[in-house]
Amino acid sequence: MRAVHRFTVRAHLPEALSALGTLATNLRWTWHPPTQDLFASVDPEVWAAVGGDPLRLLAEVPAGRLSRLAKDEDFLARTRAVDDDLRRYLTVPRWYQQRQDEGGLLPASVAYFSMEFGVTEALPNYSGGLGVLAGDHLKSASDLGVPMIGVGLLYRSGYFRQALSSEGWQVEHYPVLDPRGLPLEMLTEPSGEPLLVRVGMPAGRTLRARIWKAQVGRVPLLLLDTDLPDNDDDLRGTTDRLYGGDADHRIRQEILAGVGGMRAVRAYCALTGHPQPEVFHTNEGHAGFLGLERIRELHQDHGLQFDEAVVAVRAGTVFTTHTPVPAGIDRFPVDLVRHYFGEGTARDLVPGVPTNRVLALGAEDNPGMFNMAHMGLRLAQRANGVSELHGGVSRKMFRGLWPGFGTEEIPIGSVTNGVHGPTWSARELGKLLGESEMDSGAGLRGMEPVSDSLLWELRCSLRQRLVDEVRRRLRHAWRQRGASDLELGWCDSVFDPDVLTIGFARRVPTYKRVTLMLRDTERLRALLLDAERPVQVVVAGKSHPADEGGKVMIQKIVQFADQADVRHRIVFLPDYDMSLARYLVSGCDVWLNNPVRPLEACGTSGMKAALNGGLNLSVRDGWWDEMFDGHNGWAIPNADGVTDPNRRDDLEAAALYELISTQVAPTFYERNTDGVPGKWMSMVRHTLATLGPRVQSSRMVREYVDHHYAPAARSAKAVATADYQGAKEIADYRARLSAAWTWVKISDTEMSVQGGGTPLLGGQVVVRAQVDLAGLDPSDVDVEVVVGRVDDSDVLHDFVRESMHPTEAGGYEATVTLPHAGPAGYTVRVLPKHPLLSGPAELGKVVLATS
Ligand SMILES: *Cc1c(COP(=O)(O)O)cnc(C)c1O
After folding, report:
1. Which residue among 2, 432, 574, 636 is least crowded, i.e. fewest CB within 10 A of its CB?
2. Could you tell me which residue ranges the DUF3417 domain spans (predicted)?
3. From the CA atom positions of the chain, what is the Rg in Å?
């Protein structure tokens, strides 16, 4: 018999234990060991059985146990202490408040939009790295005191759970989540009715969503949920699955996240008195429609015209791209966007705005497609990639939006991702190194006095814990594949707690090449079975349900690992999630990553390993490209320039085997007289000391605050003062510029060497030009000379720029010092100039000399 509906009964807590309810719903427990210990002590067995989830613990622990604890003075005292600690955490001034005291103009609050948030496995609302990054972003914002509001969707089935068939094929199932059983609170009107946001849909329909709030330390996370009987059936399923449906389903989700998300933020702030955000951060382009909602607000509440509103929206928006290839960009057929935003349909979305203006925001080369990343860039004054390398890749990929500019001038910067130390570093390590809970992995002040042998002992105990977990999970996986306990005795002896352990876990898109290690199975077998220096490998990862290629790769790994001669040295563990990730990143000695460079925008799991003293063995892609220093791990040489993917994989796999057998394994097994691997431990120490602070999401969030949020808040204020005078001025300026721009001309450029003769390195030249400004005022523009190296097709590189000044003769002139020897070139160009622009490339307008 199956239930027709499901619901969750929350435990009724005795009055004396009411603080446990608060402690269970504020997700700070996920990174606060003392709170976890308190819950564990409620009932250690139930705690283990529910996988360390406080709400489930409270629901399942026998009522008698709770009433006994309600009279247990020792337990009550510990509860009070943890509760007081949480209150302090939530109220005392932190880094952000200090920054404000130093006089920095910082935003009153920041709204952070993302389609997924991975805060804890107890709230499975994420699929992979993007979501975990968003969760870590909120946690660090909380630790730093950044007044942030997270915004996203609550999926009825979260992401799928992964199991394996007996043949090793990925099987997906979608457990239905009841929000009332999750650490969430539904927002209600003062009347007690659910607080709803409404978004107009075509044909005059309305999509309604309730708002659930997860409390992530100091940061509220608002999650929209359309599973309401008031919604039409098809609309009701809008938030059924993460990345599940077709384009129509996805655009509805994105309209809800962006437009509905903005409305949820407004309603939440009005309800609670939380300051309204001044800066809006879109984590990838999916929530980009929030810009349209803000245009609507500015139009309706402040009477701004479309172009003026765009200026105001841009000033306060930060856009982060995570995509390294055009194929990865989120796009919709233009007709679909027209269907949702066209005149006559969703009127309440962008009233009075001609549809073609909306469509122009997402225009790309293909006139049939609407490009969410292009809209993101057009609606954000500040944009960034997620590692230095990816910043460069993004500048190249999007340079078409800024024609005429050098790639290095494209206004897309980079903020390298980070991971939340208190979530991802093993608590035992922090204890050993004497860290406080606030700076796990961040400074390692206490490392010097800790001996190699103590640190090694700890690494061994973390490996042992992983081995136990591997055995437990492997047995469980085999039972799901149809084996009986009777034939699974061998699972208890897979892996060896003394053997060099390599981990590989991440989602399974093709570019991450989970099967690269199988390129030469005999080489791999030899490494696994080496009599003196064996390695063992643990692999995990989910394939997108629609990606057959990914499932084939998983099956290949599983079938290899199923073989009797190697199954004690290589395992595939199904259902990779944050809880498995914690075992893996803390217990593995080596973290392997072999994407096709440069397709890994950043990658973060290797950072989690580094926080635990794991050594990275990785292709120089994403974060590793900038942080590998020759002593903190190994770089797998990449076959740059080899275009045949088969040959490239052969070459890179061979390099991987070679590195493991000649460097990684020998270093691991080379022991001092006390049994400690001395050189290995020096690499571990170096990793903890130098990468520890750099890979933290607290470092990342501080960078966002200083380089993106603070400047965005200043820009937003500058365009908004005096009833959006600045926005109107820029809109006027842009209109004036557009009208004149095609007639602006530069002619008669000439260069003369000062003192005559040949140009010399470090010598000076004078450049002159005639410029017709087509009626623009000289103060509207910057005329500059650009001098640099030239390649065979005369493209300028490594150039320097110098502003030119008007001469009495009516032309422009500048003196430049020659920066390089060798083939050089120069040109003259006219650029927009306005104090409210973030830089000369912002408007994507430039006139280059033609003669
Ligand atoms: C950290 C993490 C990821 C991201 O890993 P990458 O190395 O960036 O691919 C994905 N899934 C889970 C569960 C994680 O914890």
Report:
1. 2
2. 13-123
3. 29
Residue indicated by tokens 């893996």: 584
Query: In Å, how far from its chain's centre is CA 209?
Result: 26
Cα–Cα distance, 813 to 509 (Å, whole number) = 54
Q: Whose CA is nearest to atom 7 of ligand 1?
A: 605
Which residue's CA is the nearest one to ligand 1's atom 9? Answer: 506
Ligand 1 within 6 A of 128 CB?
Answer: yes
Q: Is 506 in the pocket of ligand 1 (CB under 6 A)?
A: yes
CA distance 246 to 226: 17
How far, in Å, from the CA of 608 to the mean position of ligand 1? 9
The pLDDT tens digits for 372-395 are 999 999 999 999 999 999 999 999
Cβ(116) – ligand 1 distance below 6 Å = no
Structural domains in the chain plus CATH codes: 15-89 (no CATH), 103-387 (3.40.50.2000), 450-694 (3.40.50.2000), 742-848 (2.60.40)
Distance of CA 193 to the CA centre of its chain: 35
Output the six-digit token pair for 439.
């700076």
64 contacts: CB under 8 Å, gap ≥ 6? none
**pLDDT, tens digit, for every residue of 320-336?**
999 999 888 999 999 99
| Phi, psi values for residue 745, rounded to 5° | -135, 145
Ligand 1 pocket: which of 161, 604, 608, 624 to mutate (most atoms <8 Å of CB)? 604
Ligand 1 centroid to Cα of residue 565, in Å, is 30
Distance (angstroms) between ligand 1 centre and the Cα of 192 equals: 39
**Alpha carbon of 508 to ligand 1 centroid (Å):** 11
* pLDDT tops 60 at residue 659: yes
Where residue 443 falls among pLDDT bands split at 50, 70, 90? very low
What pLDDT was estimated at residue 449? 74
